[in-house]
Design brief:
By secondary structure, the protein is an alpha/beta fold. The protein is 27% helix and 15% strand. Bound molecules: CIS-heme D hydroxychlorin gamma-spirolactone 17R, 18S. This is Catalase.
Length: 717
Amino acid sequence: MKNVKKHAQDSENRKQQDLKVNKSDATDQMMTTDQGLKINDDTNSLKAGERGPSLLEDFILREKITHFDHERIPERIVHARGSAAHGYFQVYESMEKYTKAGFLQDPGLKTPVFTRFSTVAGSRGSTDLARDIRGFAVKFYTEQGNYDLVGNNVPVFFIQDAIKFPDLIHAVKPEPNNEMPQAASAHDTFWDFISLMPETMHTIMWVMSDRAIPRSLRMMEGFGVHTFRFINAKNESHFVKFHWKPKLGTHAVVWDEAQKISGKNSDFHRQDLWEAIENGNFPEWELGVQIIPEADEHKFEFDLLDPTKIVPEELVPVTIIGKMVLNRNPDNFFAETEQVAFHPGHIVPGIDFTNDPLLQGRLFSYTDTQLSRLGSPNFHEIPINRTIAPMFNNQRDGHMRQEINVGRGSYHPNSLGGGCPFQAKIDEGGFTSFNERIDAHKVRDRSESFSDHFSQATLFFNSQTQVEKNHIIKALRFELGKLETIAIKTRMLGLLSQIDKTLADKVAQGLGLKVPSSPEKPINHGVGANADKQKYEPKKVTQSVKSSDALSMIKNKTLSKTIATRQVAFLCSEGVHQASINAMKTALEKAGATAKVIAPHLGTIKTSEGNELAVDQSFLIAASVLFDAVYIPGGKNAGFLNSNAEAIEFINEAYKHCKVIGADEFEILAKTHIYDKEDKNEEEGIIINSKTNDKNFTKEFIDAMGNHRFWNREAEL
Ligand code: HDE
């Protein structure tokens, strides 16, 4: 056991050391040029006379500006905006029965990971809260080589074949004539494409749900999307679907909040992840797998190779096999988060691909894109991309080669180098592909088993609570409502009516349009070369699972009641009652939440007890959308809060977004919407101290926070 621990520690240390090469946080270093020449003056350029022209000879100036001129590299074509963290992965029990993957054998082994979360459509400088899928890419630095699980926070994808990916991305990116809109799908080109591609319908349901506007990167699920294979030492294969389940549960904000957060703090997610890790609140996910025996490949009413389908958890349960903890922020955004290069083709013995045509296309794309983004085939030598496994081969040279290969041999077979590097036998860890039999005609076509585009979209919609359905309807009303072209809206209504009639009717109502009585048939779009034969006809296959709780964030069993790391705004002003603040703050901190004092100005304010209270944020900086709950302590501040428009707006917004509001006295809320309501004293999620007996107040507030939102405040659609 001691050895196992040491081994685990070694592999973590090795990666840490690897990444610290050239770390530039020294405190005792003199400034030099890139050639190591000590610099005496970095403030003035070399000139002919004090007021004279700068001299071309000034190599220090030229070197500095030339390097600066080349600081930027192309941003990722998709997933440009990201944030990442280091951590480790640990399996709970050996998975030997299913896979020989080294990092899944030994519960004592901590495999270092680097995980990058991203939005898909926006540029590097766009907002975190865009309605979008989130990338969830994990690089495992295993002893057998790097394994990348490059997934998303949604378990399905828009398209079935990689050949449509450039079209999808062209459609969703800002329109080419005016480069608008940024990081948004609510525009004509996106919905034009979607409305002509029925296979996108299932993913559209997920993207229109609140899954596309997470509360935090720490509170979203992750999925491998494609079906992969586990291969064991006996070379037996099982199909596998990967799931990441967040320990804090899966949570979202609402669309109105998302849009406002984008203005108030476009780094909301990025900052939340960074601060959680800095404060020692290390985010954690469990890795789950759905394992399907090879013999069951054709037993489902959908095709396992189709990336627009899930395997409902009711048919194949998710088995939790390990955990990932993110415990260290990057030292340098560019060197690590920007230069990390993921690739679904980075696999290790024990894991293999299937013939999912989307996955197959990805296997080519990622290396190709790194070549233009990172500028060299040697991107694997960048510290964040280096493997901790010994790396040795006959690849040589190229732009920015770091390694100085010694010796004459750079070919195989050789005798001059004694035959080195040697090929590894399978029992020495040599990789071999799963020996799948393939016997087929060469065709540009798609399997009939891929032609059901609606039934899982219906399954997703049916699995939601009424509140979640309303949010999907409102999202569609928003997105389609922004389109200029009526024909696209109508075509979309036709597609929605094939998912659910009420859904289509409700969206149509918001758009002021009618659902077409017979939906437009897709003409030769997304149908492959056999389009001319009109062979393809989308169909709906009856699903054995009618509703799945795992698909709803509200019903989901992983929804956690914990309020750990949640942020509570305390609205205060001069004369606030300090004893109330102390009691609530202590109770919240005990539950793992954070209290922030918001007041008219920064610095300190005087409490009713005569003490100075430190202010965290002024009303000018803070906003309800940046917090999970609000508390208004009593004292002499009621007068001020009732006359301050910002404080009133703060409380009204918290109410609108269905958040918990606590106050020492009901009168403090006199100028808010809450006070005007008929059932004002009975509302759920409004906790008033004077009505509870003192002891229960903080408990009731914290219990209410555990419910997260009080959706009954939302209007019926
Ligand atoms: Fe990607 N994708 N993708 N993708 N993808 C990229 O690679 C691509 C797809 C995903 O944090 C690019 O290094 C194709 C599905 C993530 O660095 C590029 C297709 C899933 C990230 C690329 C897909 C993903 C990327 C751009 C259709 C979920 C960010 C920059 C066949 C399973 C990784 C880069 C990071 C990034 C291609 C579809 C996940 C261009 C051709 C499905 C999380 O290579």
